[in-house]
Write a structure and sequence with these properties.
Layout: H1 5-15, H2 27-30, E1 36-39, E2 43-51, H3 54-62, H4 72-84, E3 95-103, H5 104-110, E4 117-120, E5 141-143, E6 151-154, H6 157-182, H7 192-195, E7 204-212, H8 213-223, H9 230-246, H10 248-259, H11 266-276, H12 283-286, H13 290-300
Antiparallel strand pairs: 1-2, 2-3, 3-7, 4-7, 5-6
Helix pairs in contact: 3-4, 4-10, 9-10
C-alpha cells in the first residue's frame, strides 16, 4: 500500500489545520495539498507546497503590482502568447514541491532532469523498507525488435510466470541478505551505507522534488509522452492532473502547444507549402532523410 495508516493520519491532520495567508492562493492546488495520489504498486506523488498561480505568470510578464489583469480572458490570452512564443521566464515564477515515492530505477531516469532541487531518503542513515516494484502481468514485455529503448509484445503464459517469479524471489532474497548484513541481532554487522549496495533497482525510495513551472513543463513534455517508459510516464501523468488544477490556463496552453503541437524544420515547412500548392512531394524530392520524412508523415497524418 502507498501509505501506512500513520502517514494517512498525519496528512489528515495537516489538511485539518489550514492557515490564513496573504499570498496568492490557487484553489485547484489547495485541493491537492498533502493528498497522496497512488502510482504503481507502492508509489505515490503528493503536493507539499506551491508558489504562484496563473495570475503570477501574467504579473511577472507585465511586471505589475497586483494580479494579472481585470480580464480573465486577457490573462489566458497572454499566457497562450507566452507559451506560443517560447517566453519561458514568466513561467519560472511558479514553483511546486512534490513528495514522491518511486522505484530506484525510475528515480535514476527522473534525476536526469537536472533543473530541480532534490533531497532523497538516505539509505546511509536509515533502513529501506521491504517494498519492491513488481510489474503487473500486462506490463511484462519482451525487448522491442525495432527500438533498443522500447518494449515489444507482452509476455504470456509460462514465460510471464517465470519472469514474475524471478523478480519476486530475487527481490526478497536480496532484502533478506540486506537485513542479515546489517545484523541487528547483536553481531557487529555491516554499515548501512555498504549494505545498501546489494539491494535491487526495483526497491522504493522517496524524495522531495522542487521545480519551477517552466522546467516542470519540460519534464512533462518528455515523460508524459506516449513514447516514455511506462513506469515513469504514470508518475508524469499523475503530476499532469495536479498541474492542470493548479494553473489551468498555463497547463491548457502547454497541452495545446507542447503536448499536442509539433515543431517543423525549414525543410518540412517547405514541403508542406509545396503540398498545399498541389505538388506531389516524395521523400526523394523533399531533401529530408528517411527518418525525417517518416516523422514528417507522422505529423501531417500522411
Amino acid at each position: 500500500m502507498p501509505l501506512t495508516p500513520e502517514q494517512a493520519a498525519e496528512i489528515d491532520a495537516l489538511r485539518a489545520t489550514p492557515q490564513p495567508t496573504l499570498r496568492a492562493v490557487a484553489p485547484g492546488a489547495e485541493a491537492h495539498l498533502y493528498t497522496a495520489h497512488p502510482v504503481l504498486d507502492h508509489g505515490f506523488i503528493r503536493m507539499v507546497d506551491y508558489m504562484g498561480d496563473d495570475s503570477a505568470i501574467c504579473q511577472a510578464a507585465r511586471v505589475s503590482y497586483g494580479k494579472g489583469t481585470k480580464s480573465v480572458s486577457n490573462d489566458e490570452g497572454l499566457i497562450r502568447y507566452l507559451m506560443r512564443h517560447w517566453h519561458s521566464t514568466p513561467f519560472e515564477m511558479c514553483e511546486i514541491k512534490l513528495h514522491v515515492k518511486l522505484p530506484v530505477f525510475v528515480a535514476r531516469q527522473w534525476i536526469r532532469h537536472r533543473t530541480a532541487n532534490v533531497n532523497e531518503y538516505s539509505a546511509r542513515y536509515s533502513i529501506l523498507d521491504r517494498e519492491f516494484y513488481i510489474p503487473q502481468p500486462d506490463a511484462l514485455a519482451a525487448q522491442s525488435t525495432t527500438n533498443n529503448q522500447g518494449r515489444g509484445a507482452v509476455l504470456t503464459g509460462r514465460e510471464a510466470e517465470r519472469v514474475l517469479e524471478i523478480l519476486k524471489s530475487d527481490s526478497d532474497r536480496a532484502y533478506d541478505h540486506y537485513e542479515e548484513m546489517l545484523s541487528e541481532d547483536g553481531q557487529q554487522g555491516l554499515a548501512r551505507e555498504l549494505a545498501r549496495m546489494n539491494l535491487p533497482a526495483n526497491i522504493y525510495t522517496q524524495w522531495y522534488w522542487k521545480v519551477d513551472l517552466h522546467n516542470l513543463f519540460h519534464f512533462l513534455r518528455l515523460r508524459a509522452d506516449a513514447h516514455a517508459q511506462m513506469e515513469i510516464r504514470v508518475y508524469a501523468e499523475a503530476i499532469c492532473k495536479v498541474v492542470a488544477d493548479w494553473v489551468p490556463f498555463a497547463y491548457g496552453a502547454f497541452e495545446d502547444y507542447r503536448m499536442g503541437g509539433a515543431t517543423l524544420s525549414a525543410k518540412a515547412l517547405d514541403c508542406l507549402r509545396r503540398m498545399l500548392a498541389g505538388e506531389a512531394v516524395t521523400q526523394e524530392t523533399s531533401g529530408m532523410s528517411k527518418g525525417e520524412w517518416r516523422e514528417f508523415e507522422g505529423v501531417i497524418g500522411s
